[in-house]
Amino acid sequence: MQNNSNATITDRAQTEPAFVRRALVTIALIFLALFLLLPLAAVFSQAFEKGLVVYLEALKEPDTLSSIKLTLITAAVTVPLNLFFGVTAAWAIAKFTFPGKNLLITLIDLPFSVSPVISGLIYVLIFGLQGWIGPWLQDHDIRIVFAVPGIILATIFVTFPFVARELIPLMEAQGKEEEEAALVLGATGLQTFFRVTLPNIKWGIIYGVILCNARAMGEFGAVSVVSGHIRGMTNTVPLHVEILYNEYNYTAAFAVASLLAFLALITLMIKTFAEWKVRQQLENN
Amino acid sequence: MKLFKRHNNVLPGFGVTLGFTVFYLSVIVLIPLSALVFRTMGLTWGEFITTVTAPRVLASYKVTFGAALIAASINAVFGVLVAWVLVRYKFPGRRIVDALVDLPFALPTAVAGITLATIYSSNGWVGRYLEPLGIKVAFTPLGITLAMTFIGLPFVVRTVQPVIEEIEVELEEAAVCLGASRWQTLYRVIFPVLLPSILTGFALSFARGVGEYGSIIFIAGNMPMVSEITPLLIITKLEQFDYRGATAIACVMLLTSFLMLLVVNLLQKWSRRYAE
Description:
- The complex is a heterodimer of chains A (285) and B (276).
- Chain A is mainly α.
- Chain A has 2 domains: 1-47, no CATH class; 50-284, MetI-like fold (Orthogonal Bundle).
- Chain A has 14 helices and no strands.
- Chain B has a single domain (39-275), classed as MetI-like (MetI-like fold, Orthogonal Bundle).
- In chain B, α11 (182-211) runs antiparallel to α14.
- Chain B is globular, with a radius of gyration of 23 Å.
- At the A-B interface, α1, α2, α4, α5 and α6 of A face α2, α4, α5, α6 and α7 of B.
């Protein structure tokens, strides 16, 4: 009886009447369906509008293939660099105390607050013909902006914080007792990192890498500024989507876009799983 | 204190990792960003002011900031609702819905852009029903607001959600025992706890909207003075080789982002104080 009345208080304290609950859930779901589900469905519906053959035809086009290749190269350079940076930064910030730590964290997050257009512009201002070292680069016949290196640089900039910002709070929460124990038992620094720290932050790394990769392959604004839009040369997949769309080649544009939408869905799946694993690991500690 | 210090020194690699962090940060982020500031300083004050307050530029601020403000407000209302429903109520498919909330983060902006433009154009899935009602979305400032709402959607949900999860049952029980109605509990007890996170989410969503480019340009129509956003104006200036103009406007945008970053940091400090 006692328990029973307690339960009622909690219930009364924590929930709304059934009809309010149902109404709120319905409104929320309609909002999300309109804003999230509908666009997602539209991508695939437009892509397959003229059938599978036309869809595959659009993907097999040489310019599409070369844009896919460039996007893969960009991600292959960007992600490992930012992963290495993220792990190093998280080690320094989470395992040690030093003055200016909060400032450093804010600066690492900075690229997320900068407009993508500005992220591209800053490299044009340095490496472009009217830029700081542009004339020197031209004398030596080195192209950075409006070429592949510029695309990679801009992509590194916009995906800069992903791994670090995921690992810093995670490693802070895990403390450093385990590493200290390993060192006291005679492990070297690197052994400690690979055998003790790495297994603990594995899912955090996967989370950061998967988001970093999604943004690296999907970045549009920053890359658009530094690309130069040369077909088959400096077009990434998102830029190729833009070109096809502006040429009124909608089916092809959406076919290529559907590849990126697939990537987004896979990213969300892995991300959700990694999130769950990280949570589980933190609860076990 | 001394023990703590010695404790600190047991782990190796501090110098190397911090050194590399600062180096990489400088090369990729700080030096390039400072290039923008230095290039702007090459302009005289008069030139700078004339450039950033030209009528076409002012119109673009109005469109950009206005639309971002409306979009962030929409997200503040619906974001809280979605976060509340996801944490407090059980319904089929809740986990999938929860994962789907991050779609605007994961979906490349160009894809979102062409998709929204297609859905809301006059013969699109939604546009064809709005057109007879006299509502034009695609190629108007309304379309810009819509795209900004889409890309800002996860921010409010993801900042408010953990705060709702952490509200102690006792808080609400106490309110009920003291005779509060459910509405009073929500308004007087829950809402003040959520407010800092709602404002943080609002600020993040607003900041993202202001800087956004990819998802907007396809649906905006990009008419100077009417539906031209500031980031696009920067690109237009750049394509006309007007580097000075582009740099000056970009500098204004950068200062705005710094200001927003400061606001968000202060808000987060405020919310943490609440938690303790």
